[in-house]
Design brief:
375 residues, alpha/beta, Carbamate kinase, Archaeosine Trna-guanine Transglycosylase, Chain: A, domain 4, elongated
């Protein structure tokens, strides 16, 4: 686990930079700030660090070139602006990194690259190979071809997914806010910055509000959701202000900057990482307290006897959430039965399944090998 005192030991890390960090209030690219970030990352690469940059800003760069005054409201217009802007943004990074002796590679991802296990593995292999070759991957969501149901959602989530895919030690999200506050600092002068979060409780999630900038798409809510992905994948995460000069270097020196989310102890295995955060969720089951305890403390499979409710329509092989009686998600896994079948067998013992359904494919609704804890 990386604490502030040990953060300098991070070998592989992901840096996510938001639109508001690399653009001016006019929406045009802030070359001064981009150049300073590139110089920082290039210097860290020279120290032997493995770096992945996840960047927003493609749509903004496209708006400038197209002469548009405000962000498009329709998806086709956003895609058109992104198609223009991605080339501009990548050219900027390639030119600046090259001046500091670094080679970069553009990688565009969509939700499908994380939902489909084969593509998830292919993405992992490509990124790890680039890192082995000393290349800095520059990643963005493929806005030019993504549609709403294929989008990862925002680059905060994307950066956490990438950190999970490559087993990063650290994820740094640079934003127009300095971290997580006890209240909204824009409306409450008494709000205080929270230096460290060891557990993302419902109270912590309640602190998140709407987007902090009209130029970006992610607010504190998406950053905290990204933190849940990161810490459960064994990745420590820091949210900090991208306007702070030398912010990445200072974070790695252990300075008390931003909000640090402490990771869980171990990285998930690649397959379970995909299962937890890559696969599309199709529904959920609620279990009783005895079943919850057996799964959390005993490493048990999920049996029909412990299920008290089913939500959604899903098929065998789909990923579903496992909820406690108070509605808290504590695990995910691959269902062995259709939701309609689980609705019939829930609360019944395994030896009753044949009598109820006429056949029994599996003893378990979710086998423990296909189950991952989310706490």
């Amino acid at each position: 686990m990386l604490t502030r005192a040990k953060i300098a030991g991070a070998k592989r890390f992901v840096v996510k930079v938001g639109t508001s960090t690399i653009t001016h209030n006019t929406g045009k690219l802030n070359f001064f700030r981009i150049e300073k970030l590139v110089r920082e990352l290039a210097d860290l690469a020279n120290q032997g660090k493995e770096i992945i940059l996840v960047t927003s800003g493609a749509v903004g760069a496209g708006l400038d070139r197209l002469g548009l005054k405000e962000r498009p409201k329709t998806l086709p217009e956003k895609q058109a602006a992104a198609a223009v802007g991605q080339g501009i943004l990548m050219h900027t990074y390639e030119k600046l990194f090259a001046e500091y002796g670094q080679t970069v590679a553009q990688v565009l991802l969509t939700r499908e690259d994380s939902v489909k296990h084969k593509r998830y593995i292919n993405s992992r292999n490509t990124l790890l190979t680039l890192l082995d070759m000393g290349v800095i991957p520059v990643i963005n969501e493929n806005d030019a071809v993504s549609v709403d149901e294929l989008k990862i959602g925002d680059n905060d989530t994307l950066s956490a997914m990438v950190a999970s895919i490559v087993d990063a030690d650290l994820l740094i999200i640079l934003s127009d806010v300095a971290g997580v506050y006890t209240a909204n600092p824009q409306s409450n002068p008494e709000a205080k910055l929270i230096s460290e979060i060891s557990d993302i409780t419902p109270e912590i999630e309640a602190l998140s509000g709407g987007p902090g900038s009209s130029r970006g798409t992610g607010g504190m809510y998406t950053k905290i959701q990204a933190a849940k992905i990161a810490v459960n994948s064994g990745v420590t995460m820091v949210i900090a202000s991208g306007a702070h000069d030398g912010v990445v270097r200072d974070i790695l020196s252990g300075a008390n900057i931003g909000t640090l989310f402490l990771s869980k102890e171990c990285h998930l295995q690649v397959r379970k990482s995909w299962l937890a955060f890559g696969a599309r969720l199709s529904g959920s089951v609620t279990v009783d307290k005895g079943c919850e305890k057996a799964i959390l403390e005993g490493g048990s499979s999920l049996l029909a006897a412990g299920i008290i409710a089913v939500d959604g329509e899903f098929e065998p092989g789909n990923t579903i959430r496992i909820l406690s009686q108070d509605g808290r998600e504590f695990a995910r896994g691959l269902a062995n039965y259709h939701s309609s079948e689980i609705d019939k067998i829930m609360g019944h013992h395994t030896n009753e399944i044949v009598q109820i359904l006429g056949s029994k494919s599996y003893d378990e609704v979710i086998h423990r090998d296909n189950l991952v804890l989310m706490v």
